[in-house]
Every structure is written in structure tokens, then in C-alpha cells.
Predict the structure of Atu2307/SP_0267 family LLM class monooxygenase.
Amino acid sequence: MELGLTTFAERHAVGDRPAPSAGERLRHVVEEAVAAERAGLDVYGVGEHHREDFAASAPAVVLATIAGRTERIQLTSAVSVLSSADPVRLYQEFATLDLLSDGRAELMAGRGSFTESFPLFGFDLADYDDLFDEKLALLLRLRADEPVNWSGRFRPALHDTVVQPRTDRPLPVWIAVGGSPQSVARAGLLGLPLALAIIGGQPARFRPLVDLYHRALEEGGHERQPIAVHAHGYIADTDAQAVAEFYEPYAAAMSGLGRERGWGDMTPDQFEALRSPAGSLFVGTPDRVAEKIAAVRDTLDLDRFMLHPSVGTLPHDKVLHTIELLGEKVAPQVR
């Protein structure tokens, strides 16, 4: 089983601690990825957002910087908002990253959990589903080593086009979903790896989606493909320390998001329910987190688990310690 981390380069103010600048936060992200490789982890992911409270609007650039500082760790977007991107340019960016990193790049394509990128790049939210369907189809055509003849609604047609540069292997493309059965079925029918974002509730409720995915793979005539989970969490030397250090930034970030979307603020009782063995938060000692990851792995038939510590902006040294614990104490137990 692969273990790794994801980040959106969050830059929230927490209590009396001001938000870091975008440059400071991005430099911390690079250092955290280097620490993840040093700790023996398998994958590091950078997500795409176009908001003031996230610094990573260009994951391929951040990942390319990380590629120059690392040798082994897999580098993935987490995710690329394909619906508002140009598939040609996105393919070129990640093909270039794959060549620079000696075959370590992956592209996780998603529809996006925020909507800022749609007006920013001139797309209509009314076309939300059609945009993703069309652009995914083109992206998959582009990674095939053949001239592409293609036309659609949302970009100019291509005629006998081979987009450069070409990779030395087919560029890995994952489908990242938040719980939509249609998206899960699409990934299976296309034979693409599946990444599940589990940021609330109970991970066990995703088991029917995993079963749907396996049925769709079979229906599409495809062999088994990897399944990954992305989940929030934090590891410290004691449970009390983990809660004390993680709760305030996590609650601040999730409460802010809740106010945007009509949810209530995060409360200590909700936090503890999410931190329980059946909940979606992976917070505690290495032993506690390892046990919980292993349980979710067995429940959902996982091949990869990606921990997202900096939901709210944590101090850089705390994130580095979590990475160390994940690689050196959690990973050996899970494996």
C-alpha cells in the first residue's frame, strides 16, 4: 500500500497567528515534499485552487520545483480542475513534469469543489458536467501516441495533431471524486484509477461506491485499477497533543467553509465524532492513526492513502513532525 500526503498550500490566519504569505507557504510546501521523500513516503500531491486562502493555483509549477529537489517520490495533482482547464495545456504541463522527474508525474482530474475557476477562465457553471465529460475525453485522446482528430463545444478543433512533448510511458490519469456515483462509474467504465476525497462522515459509507467502481471496471472490460483515499488528519506524539495542535486550525478552516456553504461551525463534539474509529479524521498517535488507516484500507480495498494535515494552516515545524511520524512510525505498521 502506498502512503503519502496532499496539500492545497493553505494560508489561513489562526487565532493570533497571521496567514503566511503565498511565497512563504509555497516554499514550505516544497520543503514538506522533500521531508516526505526523506521519511520514505510514496507520493506527494498538490491541489489546484484559485482563492486567497490557497496559494497553489498552478500545481504543475509547484510539483516541478519539488521534482528538482527529490529523486523517488511520486508527484501528483490533487486535483487538477479539468472542467476549467485546457486539456492540451494541462497534458503538456504534466508530460513535461513527467520527463523532468524521470517518470514520477501523475494527473488527478476532478470537477472541482470550488467554483472560482469557472468565471476566471470564461466558463459557465451551467455547463459543469458537459465541460468535464468533453475535456476528459480529449485528455485521454491526447495521451495516446497517435495524431488526434477531435472537435467539441468548448475549444477549437484539432486536426492530425500530436501534442508535444510525448512521455516515455502513458501519463497516469486518475479520476478524483467526492462521492458522486456517476463520477465513480465513469472512472470504472474508462478503466482509470479512482481517488476518493473523504472529508466528513464515515469512510465505510463509501463501500457501495467502491463496489460500483469494481462493477463498472468489469462492465468496461478493464482489469483492476488502484483506489486511493484522500483524508484530513494529523499525527503527534500523544493523542492530547494531536488534538490540542490540530483542532483550532482545523475548526477555523472548516467553520469558514461551512459559513460559505450554509453549514454550521465545527464544534468539539463534532470533531471528536470525526476522530472516532468510524469517523473520517485521522488524528492522534502513530499507533492510533496506523490502526485507522489499516481499517479503512481493508474496508475500501485501498491501494493508496493520502493524509492532508494542513486543512487549516499549521505551523511548518508541526507539519514536518507529522510527516516524520507518518513515514517512520505509521507507514511500517500499515504496510
